[in-house]
Amino acid sequence: YYEDPLKPPITSIDDLIATWQGIKEQEILRLDIEPLITKDQESFARYSFTYRDVAGIEHRSEGAHYVKLDDAGKAVEFRQWWNSK
Known about the structure:
Blueprint: H1 13-20, E1 27-38, E2 42-52, E3 58-69, E4 75-84
Antiparallel strand pairs: 1-2, 2-3, 3-4
């Protein structure tokens, strides 16, 4: 799992859980996802995301997600790229 494209991937479930703890308190205001490429085991989509953090500050992020699945349909690779304001 690549949370940040400039950092090494997250490769354990414990590290992934720790990374996502910071977002579970966010208030999602809007999420739009536009699939751009879909294949049997790979997909790429663009997204736009607006949320409010715990301090009440509104943020907007736009980016893309890439997901690759194994033969059983489980995610084996997830990458994201984004810009935030």
